[in-house]
Amino acid sequence: MQLYSFFNSSTSYRVRIALALKGLEVDYHGVNLRAGEQRQPQHRELSPIGGVPVLVRDDGLSLTQSLAIIDYLDALYPQAPLLPAEPLARARVLEAAQLIACDIHPLNNVRVLGYLQQVLEVAPEEKDRWYAHWVAEGLTALEVLLQRHGQGPYCFGDKPTVADCCLVPQVANAERLGCDLQAYPQVMAVYQHCLAQPAFQLAAPGRQPDFIQ
Ligand SMILES: N[C@@H](CCC(=O)N[C@@H](CS)C(=O)NCC(=O)O)C(=O)O
Fold it and tell me: What do you get for the CA distance between the two ends of the chain, in Å?
């Protein structure tokens, strides 16, 4: 399998965590989002919307959308399952994962921030306020969910799930962009626990072949 990824892309990071937790290796292709490579026609053949991650199977079939890719990997490689079988537990994991994937990430995606700056001509500090606002709204809600239904050391107990695959990259991004994360103690406890685990370390941006400072 091949993975089209960008070291700093949080959605690619989700898939890299899932692959590492399952002990799977892929051929890595860096797509430089800073240089706009995701919008090149050649990449749009793989990802019509122009994004990463893309997983390409050995037969050439490709798959986009990080949660669909993780679900596919989980079905194909059931070792270290990332979704519980019990219906309510499964829905809880997806609830947290989708809060991040649907309610936080899309508002702060590269193309959205680019549109704010380049088309709407929003000042850089206003764009940063936008980013921090949606991260704060989302992480506040995630903290409530985890306090109500979570159980450490991962989001939902002693095994990592797709919720952890989403939490770590989102918090890492927020940290990198200087957001104040003190108001989310349970989110941060899960984050710190995950960062200490070898699979999460393997998937980290700094460990990827396309890493640039
Ligand atoms: N919902 C998609 C989002 C994929 C996505 O947009 N990824 C970002 C990087 S984190 C990207 O490629 N952005 C490129 C752009 O917005 O131009 C997923 O979960 O895979």
Answer: 27
